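Risk register update: the risk of archive-format incompatibility is retired. Evidence:
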Amino acid sequence: MASLPRLIDDFQAGIADADSKMARWAGVQDQGAGVGVLAALSSLAALWVAWRFLLRCRLALKLRRMSRTVPSLRGTLPVLGPALKLAEGAPWDTMTRWAQEYGSIYKFSLFGNVNVVLSDPSFMKEVMRTKISKYHKDVDFAYRPFLSLLGTGIVTSDGPKWRKQRNKVSAAFRIEVLSAVPGMAQRAVARLAKRLDEAEEANESMEIGEEMRHLTLQVISEALMSLTAEEADGTFAKVYMPIVVEGHKRTWNPLRRFCPLLPAWWAHIKNQRILNDYVTGIIRARWEIIRKERNQAAAATNGVAEGKGLGGTADGKDSHAHLGRKRDILDKVLDSLEPGEWGSAAVLQIRDEMKTFVLAGHETSASMLNWSLFELMGSKVLMAKVVAESEQVFGHAVPLTAPLPSAEKLRGLQFTEACLRESLRKYSLVPLVVRRCVEDTTLCEEGGTEHFIPKGCSVHLLIKGVHERPDIWPDPMRYNPDRFMETPVAPYTFLPFIDGPRNCLGQHLSLLESKVVLSLLVNRYEFSLVNANAGEPNAWMIPTIPKYGTHITTKRRSGR
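Archived output:
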């Protein structure tokens, strides 16, 4: 009989042998599982490669179909495409020269993305109106540097959300709001006149472009939110304008977005926060005013209707106009809120809309006024016509505090408005608009040629190219306001405010404000240009502005 120690040793050896066999079996199983996982991953990788290959083949077939009618730029680089050529100057100037060489539609590849450039009115109509659902805004490409201002406002939205916002906001730009704009413009001119008079007495020049920016900011701020000139030039301008400047810098140097070591990076964040808090505070305070007015009106009519939101009246309509408070665009936007819609989300949406209107509403107007005054200073004949028209409408030597003419009489500033429109055409303040094609489609040329446009393409609407086509605008580089006095402008040939359902809501406000401002200024002053290089555009700014500013001196006209 074996001894106990030996039995224990044999038992331990048996356990060890079993463990060894189990380990060998598990190893085989693990190896088999590993092989299975590896095979599965290899299959997935092969499927992915095959799928990508098929997609590339499909894209190649689409591009081949596209190339049958759409010419490609010659002499471009792999991957980079024409990037180096575009960086040599204003990209839209280069693209316009290519349009003159290749025609009203051409394409190029840039960093792997296919870009189609259009400069024909028939194409513009299809993209902007008849096939608008197939072309969405390219927010990442065109608007990212300015999203801190635009947010989710009407400019950056698409689809049902855009349509809902558009319907609400469009009501705010109706005649009753526009009727107050000439008075706002007159008061802004009176404030500018004080500085011009001081500069004249001191025999000093002024950079009129910056003055126009402040003037138009005052007007749009009053029209939107009833801000005083001091508020517009103070808190609003001090944080808003630096945000715009930084946005332009980030457009051409995207790395600035990722450089927290730059003082400008932190200043940009701080300015965004201050501006957002400021506008939000205005909106919330205004809502409280409206709520109280509605409740007072409802109490006065002995019946507060239920289910009409905060203080709605029995018929659900605005009932506080009789209380005498001046109404602005913000009031109209708040009036459009549905019952129960007021809240944090509504405040943020309205905040973005207000900031969008400020950006779109004063930069373009200021640039339009700047270029118009520059051109008039260079032509005694044109200046004389504008002055004569101004005296016919406003009178001779009329104080800037005098009552304004009627709306009907202000419509007599036709040549002044033609000068403004010609500045918009010649200088193409917004030279380019970008859309993203979201499904395969076609564009049909006026002559009948059909061009295939594949999904995923960036579509560049070259407004500058349309504005400089000699077959549409003879002698396009000549400043000739009579173009807008002779015959009606053909559709989709004049596009400073875009066209179609997405056209600029504030275009009538901008033109009305600008023609009153320009007419009052030339009525009061003789302008002289100081710097000879004032006509050179800045290649890297939108709206297009003079690169070196517009420095002027003034002289009060006789009897003014």
